[in-house]
Amino acid sequence: MLTNLVEDGKHKCVPYWKDSGSMNVGYFDVVVKDVTERADYIIRKIQITNMKSKKCKIFDHYHFTSWPDHGVPKVLDLLEFFWLTRETSLSRPGPVLNQYECIFTSMLEVVEYGQTSMTTSAYTLNYAELNGSLNMENIALDKGTRQSSYWKKWIKSSRAVDGRMSTRFSEGSCIHTGISSSFEWWQVDLGRECYIHKLTIHFRTDYRLRRNGVAVYSSVDGSPKPTGHLCGSVTRSSPDVMWMTCDDTARYITLYQDTYNSQKSWQKGDTAMNFCEVQVFETKLEWTDGSVCDSNHYGPLCEKSCPSRHCDESPDKSSCDKQTGKCVNGCTAGWVGKDCLKACDPGSFGKHCTQFCHCRDEPCNHVTGNCTAGCKPNWAEITCSVCDSYHYGSLCDKSCSMRHCNTSHDNSCDKLTGKCDNRCTPGWMEEDCTKNKYNRKGVTVYSSVAENQRNTGHLCGSINSTSTDVMWMTCDDTARYITFYRDNNNKDTSMDFCEVQIFECVSNHYGPLCENSCSSKHCNVPCNKRTGQCDNGCTAGWIEPDCAKKCSQSTYGFRCANNCNQRNCLGTSSCDHVTGGCDQGCDRGYQGEDCTTKCSKSTYGFRCENNCNQRNCFGTSSCDHVIGKCDQGCNSYRGYQGEDCTKSIAQTGAPDENPGPIIGGVIGTAVVVVVVAVIVVVFLK
What is the spatial distance between Cα 215 and Cα 242, in angstroms, rounded to a whole number? Predict the structure, then answer.
């Protein structure tokens, strides 16, 4: 098959198959068993069954999709398709059906008679009947729309859902966004959340340039940003009618464009979009052979469990599509996918996985976003998703202290923009007062061990038009000379600056002038000589990020991860924030500075001073680390008693000259135990 179903806004071919489920045509049942999509063609395995004779055949259906309407395809693409079909026909028996006008009739003849006459008169299909049997509906028709900007205000965004398939701009059915923004978007609100199988975009055919770079997203929150589920992208070579498979539960379809397109390579171009119609199809899959999964399973082989999904609804009310397992109301926090079985990617969390964390050593919890190991530098709060008090920007990489705000009043530091409340000091501009009005562009600074008058050596940094009045650079190099260089690419190669200072902070100091001391901080290693931050965390008993605050009263130790209430102190005790030491030592059975370590296997009691091997237990016994209790009591033959069988009976004043009663008592006890055991066994039988 060499043509698309729809070309230039016109229906060219009637599909005699359904990509999902089965389709009945007369007394034939047509099922697509497998689909392989490539850039220029689609291969389908189509099974056709005669429902009367029960005869069945499987066909390889080759569909070339890159032949443009009223044009010719690329030679290499068509040759690749030709050789693919030729190799298949040579390696497998059976007739080759290669004329579209008669292909479906011929397929039916092969099923019925085992051969085909290759004529075109045997079978006629009604398009309306087939379109209805596909059970697909354009749910975007006449729905609410909006877009980022307008080229002309009278060119409404609703043109793209008016049902008109005209693809020439002069015919009045295409939208056109503005041309001056760095990005543009168009969006349709379907009015409800639904399972979107496919969508199609009918692009303008009299100006093909602006389709390049368009990305299509489905979402439930209506955000015009390039987030949500990516249905597909469009390139300069995409067809005039672009089909995409979404397979996503969504309410909004957004077309987003941030690619600058231009006719000439030297032109900047613009990000405008102009297309003529968007159709969104909600496909309902149906089983026709009577064999379905039970209520707790879904999938092609019923191999997936419905209860294992993470649907945002109660388990007893959750629907479970037999084929897709789709969660009707979406997923709970931390999970995505139509059946909600995929956890958020590392570094993201929450509902729809749209929130981002910046943990220090490991990913955050994909459901809650909690960072157990603390945050990366400049990030704060338990999810490490907002800037700390000293930084701002989308990546928290800008310093509040480096702004040039008017200091006549106090200035806050917006965590996203860094905006100065009282404008900038003279000579500075932009919202965060970090762009210099004067051009210093083109100066580079090099360090070297030899005298140098050129742009060689170690590059310490470059200066541009946004550089600050006091420009700091980090060299981290062993050198003798510092060279400032400006080349001939600038109209003015002259340089004028007032002072050059070169610093090496001594140990335990930091800051622009090394004026700040790290001694008040409790860093694992010396603090950062530029920022003063503890890049490798704090010593035990101190809280990140600046390691100047003690652990709370209920915690202690490294990262304040130990709980004071879990120690085993003797009596009431304070809790040292560093060691967790107990004031009066440890309770029985415990040792260590914070009394959290049990006695070894061979010791027990206070300070673990008692030796398990010095007890007088009856038979073999374990050794409780607290009291040293014997499992089977004491060895009375040797005359010992007590909780740990270390106390001599003679020490208690009991007579020891007549061991008879003791021995007899032991024997009597043994007899009672044996008799009771026998009685129990007999009773149970």
Answer: 12
> Domain holding 168: CATH number?
2.60.120.260
**What's the number of domains the chain is made of?**
3
| The last residue of a domain, from among 234, 251, 283 | 283
DSSP letters, 10-26, are: EE----SS-SSSEEEET
Long-range Cβ pairs for the range 627-630 (8 Å, 24+): 627/588, 627/589, 628/604
Q: Which residues contact 264 (CB under 8 A, 6 or more apart)?
A: none
Q: Is the pLDDT of residue 658 over 50?
A: no
Q: How many CB atoms lie within 10 A of CB 150?
A: 14
Name the E strands within 103-182: 136-138, 144-147
d(CA 342, CA 325): 13
Residue 97 lies in a domain: yes
b/e burial code for range 546-569 (CB count within 10 A of at least 16 → b): bbeeebeeebbbebbebebeebbb
Are 234 and 100 within one domain? no
Token code pair at residue 572: 């009431």
- pLDDT of the residue at 140: 93
Task: With cut-offs at 50, 70 and 90, classify the pLDDT of residue 283.
Answer: low
- pTM of the entire predicted model: 0.32
At 35, the amino acid letter reads: V
Residue 102, helix vs strand vs coil: helix
Residue at a domain's end among 74, 107, 130: 130
Q: Which two tokens stand for residue 274?
A: 């102009």
Instruction: For residue 106, give the nearest of 98, 121, 116, 95 by alpha carbon.
Output: 116
* Residue pointed to by tokens 């806050």: 412
Across 118-127, 402-411, 496-505, least confident range: 118-127
DSSP E strands, 425-492: 428-429, 435-436, 443-448, 458-463, 481-486
Q: Report the pLDDT averaged over residues 175-202.
A: 89
- Residue 14's contacts (CB-CB under 8 Å, 6 or more residues apart) are 5, 125, 127, 130
Co-location of 21 and 85 in the same domain: yes
Distance, in Å, from the CA atom of 246 to the CA atom of 197, rounded to the nearest integer, reads 5
Q: What is the rounded distance in angstroms from the CA atom of residue 202 to the CA atom of residue 208?
A: 11
Q: Is the distance from CB of 384 to CB of 397 less than 8 angstroms?
A: no
